[in-house]
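Note to self: keep these together.
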Amino acid sequence: MTAHRPTMPPSGPAPERLVRLVAALAAAAVAGLAAVPAATAHEHDLELAGAWLRVIIPSRPAAGYFTLRNESDHTRTLVGASSPACGRVMLHLSETVGGADRMVMVKGVTVPARGTLEFAPHGYHLMCMKPSAGLKPGQDVPFTLRFKDGATVTGPFKVRGATGR
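Structure:
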C-alpha cells in the first residue's frame, strides 16, 4: 500500500482550521445523502445504489461514494473502477493514525456474500484523478466497477458540489 498525503501551500489555512473545514464539509455531504434519490445499477448479483461524486474544486481530485450490495452466495472483491469523467480512478481508504488523517490507496475491498459495502466520507472512497473540466453538480457520469472475478457493474454517479448537494 502506498500512502497519499495531501500537501498544502505555506500560505494555506492552519491545520486545525483545515480539519474543521473538512469535517464540516463531510457532515454536510452525509446530511445531503437523503436529499437526492438513489440511482441503481444491477449486474452479476451486485447492486450499486446511491452513487455520487463530490467535486470540490474542478481542477482537483473528486471523491466517489456509493453502496454496493452483493446478492450472491460468494464473497466478491472490488479491485478497480473507471469513468470517462476521470483520467484515472483509484480505490482509497481514509483513516486516522496517531491523530493524523491520511488516505491510503488499496488494491481491493471485499464485499461479503449476501452483504453490503459502503463507500462513504471518512472511509472507503473512489478517487477520481484529473476529473473532466466540465463536471457540474446535477450531472450524471458513468462509472464502471471491476471485480476480481471479472464481473463489472456500470452505473450513474450524480455529480454534487463540496457540500454533497
